[in-house]
Amino acid sequence: MNVDLKTYIESGKAVLGIEFGSTRIKAVLIGQNKEPIASGSYTWENQLVDHIWTYSLDSIWSGLQKCYLDLLDDVKKKYDCKIKKLGAIGFSAMMHGYMAFDEDGNLLVPFRTWRNTITQEASERLTELFDFHIPQRWSIAHLYQAMLNKEEHVGKIKSLLTLAGYINWKMTGKKVVGVGEASGMFPIDIKTCDYNEEMITKFEKKAQEKGYEVSLRSLLPKVACAGEMAGQLTKEGAAKLDVTGELEAGIPVAPAEGDAGTGMVATNSVRPRTGNVSAGTSVFGMVVLEKELSKVYDAIDLVTTPSGDLVAMVHCNNCTSDLNAWINIFKEFTKLFKMDISTDELYKKLYKNAMNGDADCGDLVAYNYFSGEHITGFEEGRPLFVRTPESKFTLANFMRTNLYASLSVLKTGFDILFKQEGVQIDKIYGHGGLFKTKGVGQNILAAALNTPVSVMETAGEGGAWGMALLASYLIDKKEHQSLADYLKDEVYKNNIGIEVLPEKKDVDGFNMYIDRYTKGLEIERAAVGVL
Fold first, then answer.
1. Could you give the CA distance from residue 256 to residue 53 in angstroms, rounded to a whole number?
2. What angle do CA 10, 64, 283 make, to 5 degrees?
3. pTM to 2 decimal places
4. How far apart are CA 365 and CA 385, in angstroms?
């Protein structure tokens, strides 16, 4: 097998996907059967600079290069060869945010990521203007808030991009993003697979009232649907990606997508009545809709699949950051006593032990708010763990509580879809770090949503693999073959995942926990005010 894959790689047919996650940049190389055959990664962290969550340009490029070098090392170890050509490549990143550039391509203000909750006024005004929910993290909300703040740089903006769009631009020379990524910048007209023209007109008129002559079409990147070309890797792009100088230019590049779109692809959730939950630093759940919702909800965002179909998204800023921090405390404990326990083993043991806890967590409650959480109305976060003297404070209950906390805000949004809108769903797939330990995250999500949840063996590969699949669709699709059919026929034919059903005691326990969680939100508000 290794000889065959070596030949495949050396022939330049392998396809690469790279995704910039919140805490890790990952590259996945896929083979002829669309399976991951090599990977690389690089761990990074955002910084809170002047109350803004950001990543520097230097960290973006050094992180990408180190991730790619790690991939090259993996290829060398497994197949004893180099990568000089690729069949196709695609770049993805955490969605939303604000990267504003002047006419010379200079970044005007530090990159404002999705994690910032500083655009509430803009979000509310644009939601009213469009009669369409505009979340705080969307690019257009950041732009309008900058206008409301009368920030000096606004008049100098010549292009507005997301991180994925920025990478695509620097790799190809073209400012193009996939429709799923674009749908997190500005509302999309699903009939045209492009920005909503009526809303563009409304925004430009409103901006003019604020003293800004803006042409959104010239500011925003071009929109492309899955399967369309987003350019080719330039010599400059190749040199910027591969510091060894081996990678050749001319590689077809798929439209840059966000982590929402790649998550849908990585879980075969691009057809109506399918959905998925991606759980890592943040958590978001998506359901591909059969029809539009009856009204606007602050907790529900409307985005699209990479093919342009309407998707209801519940996006929560906080998921595993606080949980990871607690695991690190246990890691320090093991080091203190000179115990040789790997981080992976530590996660597995503690996660599995959580399943021995009480279904309602023994009257414990946790708020995992590292940052603000718009669905519950927090502009800032204060991680908080609360118990009474009578609570059952055991290790199992402690871990179970932190796992419940990771999915509690998500449940709020899904309750709207299922209970108020009557949305029907055939399958929910879980992917991301929370689901790596079998029988834990999957079971807890099933209890939270009271619906069956499936996890595939490839769940841990996440968005980088999804982006690689989108790149392979670009070059391998048959005439008139939809993305959904391509995934069904070429990728998931024999991979339907392992499904678990919700258990009544766990569903009841999670509901009891949510009641306690909701009542205790005032404690979290007090913590934000005091600490």
1. 22
2. 110
3. 0.85
4. 6
Q: What is the pLDDT of residues 323-364, one digit of tens each?
A: 999 999 999 999 999 999 999 999 999 999 999 999 999 999
Q: Alpha-carbon distance 156 to 213, whole Å?
A: 11
Alpha helices in 49-162 (DSSP H): 57-79, 120-130, 139-148
Asked whether the beta carbons of 261 and 413 are under 8 A apart, the reply is no
| Secondary structure E strands in 125-221 | 159-161, 176-178, 188-189, 194-195
How are the residues of the chain apportioned to helix, strand and coil, as percentages rounded to the nearest 5? 45, 20, 40
pLDDT at 459 (0 to 100): 54
- Lookup: tokens for 474: 């670009």
Strand boundaries in 214-273, DSSP class E:
222-224, 257-258
Which residues does residue 302 pair with via DSSP β-bridges, in sequence order? Answer: 312
Half-sphere exposure of 155 (CA within 13 A, CB side): 6
Task: Give buried/exposed letters for 80-119 (b at 16+ CB in 10 A, else e).
Answer: ebebebbbbbbbbbbbbbbbbbeeeeeebbbbbbbbbbbb
Cα→Cα distances 502→49, 157, 351, 447, 448, Å: 42, 50, 18, 5, 9
Adjacent-strand bridge partners of 311: 288, 303
Element (H, E) at 286: strand 283-288
